[in-house]
Amino acid sequence: MRIGILGAGHIGSTLARHFDRIGHEVVISNSRGPDTLEDVVADIGGSVRAVTAEDAARFGEVVVVSIPYGHYRDLPADALRDKVVIDTCNYYPERDGQDRELDTDTTTSSEKIKEHTGSNLVKAFNAIYWEHLRDRARPKGDPGRLAIPLSGSDDGAKAVVAGLVRDIGFDPVIAGNLGQGGRRHQPGTAVYGAELSAEESDALLHAAA
Question: What's the predicted TM-score (pTM) here?
Answer without folding.
Answer: 0.97
